[in-house]
Write a structure and sequence with these properties.
The protein is of the alpha/beta class. It has a single domain, classed as Rossmann fold, CATH 3.40.50. 38% of the residues lie in helices and 19% in strands. It is built from 13 helices and 17 strands. The chain has a seven-stranded mixed beta sheet with strand order 12-11-8-6-7-14-15, with helices on both faces. A four-stranded mixed beta sheet has the order 5-4-17-16. Strand 16, helix 12 and strand 17 form a beta-alpha-beta unit. Helix 3 crosses helix 4, helix 6 crosses helix 7 and helix 8 runs parallel beside helix 9. The protein starts with 10 loop residues before the first helix and ends with a helix.
């Protein structure tokens, strides 16, 4: 077996990485010096409180109230991180706001590519947040989506997050039972759903699926529809369903961010459901913020102004990870389905990136 590395980073490449910058910062601020990645990793394992505090310091996490203790206990369940701290995930997204810079690039399998500036993103997030507030959505309420991997999913998530509500999503290729098995457990107040999607050049109408999902979720108070197949038209739905495009036309209030506890739920993911009902997996505002800052910067070496892509549907946890590209001021690439030849190229690129990041460490 050939053990020769596929690629070895140069010294200048290593020193331009965000991981190297973090190590230099640790030396300057904490007086900690490490000769290798393995030494740094071992320190992070042996001194987990100091490590995570350093992450919050290094990335200048915005705490609206300070924490009194980094970790309440080393035993699970029940351990709490950064007790007393209050923050908001979406606020950290929008501190990267640069009006005319591109925040999202969206690709459709037809080959069309659209771009969304930070200005448009902020306007639409503000409009959605304002609308949800008129519905009485507040901190702790659950808002769910049945959307493809499109900008409207990210917009809706950030709006929900900004007001301290809890997000959860599934992909529109799921059937009624799969969606209801997940969402019914968390009793959502609002659902944002699509009328369908395209795959392999064919339209897949989900109108009846959405109606059946809605009728199976008794806690729903409002249904918002993205007319993905039929453009601006949602006449095939009941008259009290709201067209998402009408929300963008409003003049929203200034975008504000609800301060929530570090350990408050941010979103709910699910296990596969191969043994009984899918198990809800609750992740916290602060925990996800710190983890995604660490993962995207130190492990993926994402820099401001770069593009980040990971092929995913909204039913897979990698969709949640991709949102964190915006945390670092990079551009998020999203798409629903793509041509097979393009996917083969993407998979090859991702494979080489994985090898490169592994060897870099």
């Amino acid at each position: 077996m050939n053990s020769k590395p596929l690629w070895t980073p140069s010294k200048s490449f290593k020193q331009s990485s965000r991981l190297y910058a973090y190590q230099q910062w640790l030396a300057e601020v904490y007086g900690l010096h490490f000769d290798s990645y393995e030494q740094l990793w071992q320190w992070s394992v042996d001194h987990i409180e100091a490590f995570w505090e350093s992450i919050s310091d290094y990335f200048n996490v915005i705490f609206h109230t300070p924490y009194s203790k980094i970790l309440s206990s080393y035993y699970m369940p029940g351990a709490k991180w950064f007790e007393g701290a209050k923050l908001n995930y979406a606020e950290h997204i929008f501190r990267n706001y640069k009006e005319d810079h591109i925040a999202i690039i969206f690709s459709h399998e037809s080959g069309s590519i659209n771009q969304m500036t930070w200005k448009e993103l902020k306007h639409k997030v503000s409009a959605m947040a304002s609308y949800l507030k008129t519905l009485g959505v507040t901190k702790g309420d659950r808002v769910v989506s049945f959307l493809p991997n499109v900008p409207e999913a990210t917009i809706s998530f950030l709006a929900v997050n900004s007001i301290g509500a809890i997000w959860s999503s599934t992909s529109p290729d799921f059937g009624v039972e799969s969606v209801v098995d997940r969402f019914k457990q968390i009793e959502p107040k609002v659902i944002i759903a699509t009328d369908g999607y395209f795959y392999n050049g064919k339209p897949f109408d989900k109108t009846d699926v959405v109606k059946n999902i809605v009728s199976s979720l008794p806690t729903l108070e409002k249904v918002i529809v993205l007319p993905y197949l039929n453009k601006m038209d949602i006449d095939q739905f009941p008259s009290d369903f709201v067209n998402i495009n009408s929300i963008w036309q409003d003049s929203p209030a200034e975008l504000t961010f609800e301060s929530v506890d570090f350990n408050d739920p941010m979103w709910v993911l699910y296990s596969s459901g191969t043994t009984g009902l899918p198990k809800p997996i609750v992740q916290s505002h602060g925990g996800i913020l710190l983890e995604q800052l660490k993962y995207m910067a130190l492990h993926n070496d994402v820099h401001e102004g770069e593009n980040f892509f990971w092929f995913s549907t909204t039913g897979w946890m990698m969709w949640n990870v991709v949102q964190s590209a915006l945390l670092l001021g990079s551009t998020m690439l999203c798409c629903w389905v793509v041509l097979l030849c393009f996917m083969m190229v993407v998979l090859l690129i991702l494979t080489l990136m994985c090898y490169g990041n592994f060897l870099k460490k």
